[in-house]
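User: C-alpha coordinates for both sequences below?

Assistant:
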Amino acid sequence: MQQSVAIIFGALLVIIGAAGFVVPAVKAPTSGAPAYNVFHLAFGVVGIGLGIAGTAAARAFTIGFGAIDLVQLVASRAGWYPKRVFRWKPADDVLHLIFGVVLIGIGVFAG
Protein backbone atom coordinates (compact mmCIF):
# COMPACT_ATOMS: atom_id res chain seq x y z
CA MET A 1 0.00 0.00 0.00
CA GLN A 2 2.82 2.43 0.83
CA GLN A 3 4.20 2.22 -2.68
CA SER A 4 0.83 2.78 -4.31
CA VAL A 5 0.09 5.80 -2.13
CA ALA A 6 3.49 7.36 -2.84
CA ILE A 7 3.13 6.84 -6.59
CA ILE A 8 -0.48 8.07 -6.75
CA PHE A 9 0.14 11.06 -4.49
CA GLY A 10 3.35 11.85 -6.39
CA ALA A 11 1.41 11.80 -9.67
CA LEU A 12 -1.23 14.05 -8.11
CA LEU A 13 1.48 16.52 -7.09
CA VAL A 14 2.86 16.54 -10.65
CA ILE A 15 -0.62 17.23 -12.03
CA ILE A 16 -1.20 20.01 -9.49
CA GLY A 17 2.16 21.57 -10.27
CA ALA A 18 1.56 21.48 -14.02
CA ALA A 19 -1.99 22.78 -13.65
CA GLY A 20 -0.65 25.70 -11.63
CA PHE A 21 1.17 26.92 -14.71
CA VAL A 22 -1.96 26.60 -16.88
CA VAL A 23 -4.82 27.82 -14.67
CA PRO A 24 -4.68 31.59 -14.01
CA ALA A 25 -3.89 32.21 -10.33
CA VAL A 26 -6.92 34.47 -9.91
CA LYS A 27 -9.24 31.62 -10.99
CA ALA A 28 -7.53 28.88 -8.99
CA PRO A 29 -8.89 27.95 -5.54
CA THR A 30 -5.33 27.24 -4.41
CA SER A 31 -2.07 29.09 -4.86
CA GLY A 32 -0.79 29.43 -8.40
CA ALA A 33 2.59 30.86 -7.41
CA PRO A 34 5.32 29.66 -9.79
CA ALA A 35 7.63 28.64 -6.94
CA TYR A 36 4.84 26.58 -5.41
CA ASN A 37 4.15 24.91 -8.75
CA VAL A 38 7.83 23.94 -9.05
CA PHE A 39 7.72 22.64 -5.47
CA HIS A 40 4.78 20.38 -6.39
CA LEU A 41 6.45 19.14 -9.57
CA ALA A 42 9.72 18.35 -7.78
CA PHE A 43 8.15 16.55 -4.83
CA GLY A 44 5.79 14.72 -7.17
CA VAL A 45 8.73 13.27 -9.05
CA VAL A 46 10.40 12.38 -5.75
CA GLY A 47 7.21 10.66 -4.53
CA ILE A 48 6.91 8.60 -7.70
CA GLY A 49 10.57 7.65 -7.53
CA LEU A 50 10.42 6.64 -3.88
CA GLY A 51 7.22 4.72 -4.51
CA ILE A 52 8.96 2.75 -7.23
CA ALA A 53 12.06 2.28 -5.04
CA GLY A 54 10.28 0.18 -2.43
CA THR A 55 8.12 0.09 0.65
CA ALA A 56 10.61 1.66 3.08
CA ALA A 57 11.31 4.56 0.73
CA ALA A 58 7.60 5.02 0.06
CA ARG A 59 6.86 5.04 3.80
CA ALA A 60 9.54 7.69 4.30
CA PHE A 61 7.86 9.79 1.61
CA THR A 62 4.35 9.47 3.04
CA ILE A 63 5.44 10.38 6.55
CA GLY A 64 7.93 13.02 5.40
CA PHE A 65 5.62 14.76 2.95
CA GLY A 66 2.75 14.54 5.43
CA ALA A 67 4.96 16.36 7.93
CA ILE A 68 5.89 18.95 5.29
CA ASP A 69 2.18 19.52 4.64
CA LEU A 70 1.56 20.18 8.33
CA VAL A 71 4.57 22.52 8.52
CA GLN A 72 3.18 24.42 5.53
CA LEU A 73 -0.16 24.76 7.33
CA VAL A 74 1.54 26.20 10.42
CA ALA A 75 3.76 28.47 8.29
CA SER A 76 0.76 29.78 6.41
CA ARG A 77 -1.27 30.51 9.55
CA ALA A 78 1.72 32.02 11.40
CA GLY A 79 2.98 34.04 8.41
CA TRP A 80 6.32 32.21 8.31
CA TYR A 81 8.53 31.61 5.29
CA PRO A 82 7.70 30.64 2.54
CA LYS A 83 4.20 32.15 2.86
CA ARG A 84 5.04 35.22 0.80
CA VAL A 85 6.71 33.17 -1.93
CA PHE A 86 4.11 30.38 -2.11
CA ARG A 87 1.13 32.74 -1.63
CA TRP A 88 -1.07 30.13 0.05
CA LYS A 89 -4.83 30.58 -0.01
CA PRO A 90 -7.30 29.22 2.60
CA ALA A 91 -7.96 26.15 0.41
CA ASP A 92 -4.24 25.32 0.57
CA ASP A 93 -4.45 25.31 4.37
CA VAL A 94 -7.38 22.89 4.34
CA LEU A 95 -5.63 20.57 1.88
CA HIS A 96 -2.38 20.69 3.89
CA LEU A 97 -4.26 19.65 7.02
CA ILE A 98 -6.12 16.81 5.31
CA PHE A 99 -3.19 15.46 3.31
CA GLY A 100 -0.77 15.90 6.20
CA VAL A 101 -2.86 13.85 8.61
CA VAL A 102 -3.81 11.23 6.01
CA LEU A 103 -0.26 10.74 4.70
CA ILE A 104 1.26 10.46 8.16
CA GLY A 105 -1.51 8.07 9.18
CA ILE A 106 -0.88 5.89 6.15
CA GLY A 107 2.86 6.00 6.67
CA VAL A 108 2.61 5.02 10.32
CA PHE A 109 -0.31 2.58 10.35
CA ALA A 110 -0.68 1.05 6.87
CA GLY A 111 1.23 -2.02 5.80
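Moving on to the next sequence.
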Amino acid sequence: MQKYKTVDEFLGSLDSDKKAQVEALRKIILDSSPGLEEHIKWNAPSYIYEGEDWITFNTLNKQGVVNIVLHMGALRKEDKKAAPILHDTTGLISWSSDIRGMIRFENIKDVQAKSEKLSTVLKQWLAIGQ
Protein backbone atom coordinates (compact mmCIF):
# COMPACT_ATOMS: atom_id res chain seq x y z
CA MET A 1 0.00 0.00 0.00
CA GLN A 2 1.26 3.46 -0.89
CA LYS A 3 2.01 5.85 1.97
CA TYR A 4 0.79 9.35 1.19
CA LYS A 5 2.82 12.35 2.29
CA THR A 6 0.51 15.12 1.08
CA VAL A 7 -3.21 15.65 0.60
CA ASP A 8 -2.63 16.30 -3.11
CA GLU A 9 -0.83 12.97 -3.43
CA PHE A 10 -3.74 11.26 -1.67
CA LEU A 11 -6.32 12.96 -3.92
CA GLY A 12 -4.37 11.97 -7.01
CA SER A 13 -4.70 8.30 -6.06
CA LEU A 14 -8.51 8.31 -5.91
CA ASP A 15 -10.90 7.30 -8.66
CA SER A 16 -13.14 10.10 -9.91
CA ASP A 17 -16.18 9.13 -7.80
CA LYS A 18 -14.27 8.96 -4.52
CA LYS A 19 -12.30 12.08 -5.37
CA ALA A 20 -15.56 14.02 -5.89
CA GLN A 21 -16.83 12.83 -2.50
CA VAL A 22 -13.60 13.66 -0.69
CA GLU A 23 -13.30 17.10 -2.28
CA ALA A 24 -16.91 17.97 -1.39
CA LEU A 25 -16.39 16.74 2.17
CA ARG A 26 -13.08 18.62 2.50
CA LYS A 27 -14.88 21.85 1.64
CA ILE A 28 -17.55 21.22 4.28
CA ILE A 29 -14.90 20.33 6.86
CA LEU A 30 -12.66 23.32 6.14
CA ASP A 31 -15.67 25.67 6.12
CA SER A 32 -16.70 24.42 9.58
CA SER A 33 -13.81 26.24 11.29
CA PRO A 34 -11.12 28.63 10.09
CA GLY A 35 -8.75 27.16 12.70
CA LEU A 36 -8.40 23.73 11.10
CA GLU A 37 -5.05 22.54 9.76
CA GLU A 38 -5.09 19.80 7.11
CA HIS A 39 -2.43 17.09 6.94
CA ILE A 40 -2.07 13.33 6.43
CA LYS A 41 -2.77 10.92 9.31
CA TRP A 42 -3.67 7.24 9.04
CA ASN A 43 -2.77 7.59 5.33
CA ALA A 44 -5.66 10.02 4.66
CA PRO A 45 -6.52 13.70 5.12
CA SER A 46 -6.93 14.66 8.75
CA TYR A 47 -7.74 17.93 10.50
CA ILE A 48 -6.00 19.38 13.52
CA TYR A 49 -7.95 21.65 15.83
CA GLU A 50 -6.38 23.31 18.87
CA GLY A 51 -3.26 21.15 18.43
CA GLU A 52 -5.00 17.75 18.18
CA ASP A 53 -6.53 15.69 15.38
CA TRP A 54 -10.33 15.84 15.57
CA ILE A 55 -11.51 14.77 12.11
CA THR A 56 -9.95 12.15 9.80
CA PHE A 57 -11.01 10.53 6.53
CA ASN A 58 -11.24 6.76 6.17
CA THR A 59 -11.43 5.68 2.54
CA LEU A 60 -9.44 2.46 2.56
CA ASN A 61 -12.09 0.11 3.91
CA LYS A 62 -13.72 -3.14 2.82
CA GLN A 63 -17.05 -1.42 2.17
CA GLY A 64 -15.51 0.94 -0.41
CA VAL A 65 -17.22 3.95 1.13
CA VAL A 66 -15.92 7.28 2.37
CA ASN A 67 -16.07 7.69 6.13
CA ILE A 68 -15.29 10.65 8.31
CA VAL A 69 -13.99 9.71 11.74
CA LEU A 70 -14.62 12.11 14.61
CA HIS A 71 -12.09 11.61 17.39
CA MET A 72 -10.01 13.50 19.93
CA GLY A 73 -6.46 12.54 19.10
CA ALA A 74 -4.59 11.87 22.32
CA LEU A 75 -6.59 14.34 24.41
CA ARG A 76 -8.35 11.75 26.48
CA LYS A 77 -8.77 8.03 26.82
CA GLU A 78 -11.71 6.40 25.05
CA ASP A 79 -14.45 4.69 27.02
CA LYS A 80 -16.32 2.24 24.79
CA LYS A 81 -19.06 1.78 27.37
CA ALA A 82 -19.74 5.45 28.07
CA ALA A 83 -22.27 7.64 26.31
CA PRO A 84 -20.96 9.85 23.50
CA ILE A 85 -19.87 13.33 24.61
CA LEU A 86 -21.83 14.88 21.74
CA HIS A 87 -25.58 14.47 21.54
CA ASP A 88 -26.10 13.91 17.80
CA THR A 89 -29.54 15.20 16.86
CA THR A 90 -28.87 14.53 13.14
CA GLY A 91 -28.48 10.76 13.39
CA LEU A 92 -25.38 10.85 11.18
CA ILE A 93 -22.84 9.55 13.68
CA SER A 94 -22.28 5.90 14.46
CA TRP A 95 -20.45 5.95 17.81
CA SER A 96 -17.84 3.36 18.80
CA SER A 97 -16.91 5.07 22.08
CA ASP A 98 -17.59 8.23 24.03
CA ILE A 99 -15.12 10.20 21.87
CA ARG A 100 -15.00 8.31 18.55
CA GLY A 101 -17.70 8.22 15.93
CA MET A 102 -17.97 7.64 12.21
CA ILE A 103 -20.10 9.22 9.50
CA ARG A 104 -20.54 7.14 6.33
CA PHE A 105 -21.02 8.38 2.77
CA GLU A 106 -22.01 5.97 0.01
CA ASN A 107 -21.54 8.33 -2.96
CA ILE A 108 -21.57 12.00 -3.98
CA LYS A 109 -25.39 12.15 -3.82
CA ASP A 110 -25.20 10.94 -0.22
CA VAL A 111 -22.63 13.66 0.55
CA GLN A 112 -24.91 16.28 -0.96
CA ALA A 113 -27.96 14.98 0.91
CA LYS A 114 -26.12 15.03 4.25
CA SER A 115 -24.10 18.24 3.76
CA GLU A 116 -26.19 20.58 5.94
CA LYS A 117 -26.43 18.07 8.78
CA LEU A 118 -22.71 17.33 8.49
CA SER A 119 -21.87 21.02 8.73
CA THR A 120 -23.96 21.27 11.91
CA VAL A 121 -22.34 18.17 13.45
CA LEU A 122 -18.81 19.36 12.67
CA LYS A 123 -19.39 22.76 14.23
CA GLN A 124 -20.83 21.11 17.35
CA TRP A 125 -17.95 18.63 17.46
CA LEU A 126 -15.29 21.30 17.22
CA ALA A 127 -17.08 23.48 19.79
CA ILE A 128 -16.26 20.79 22.36
CA GLY A 129 -12.57 21.65 21.90
CA GLN A 130 -12.96 25.34 22.61
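User: Anything stand out in the second?

Assistant: Residues 69 and 79 are 16 Å apart (CA to CA).
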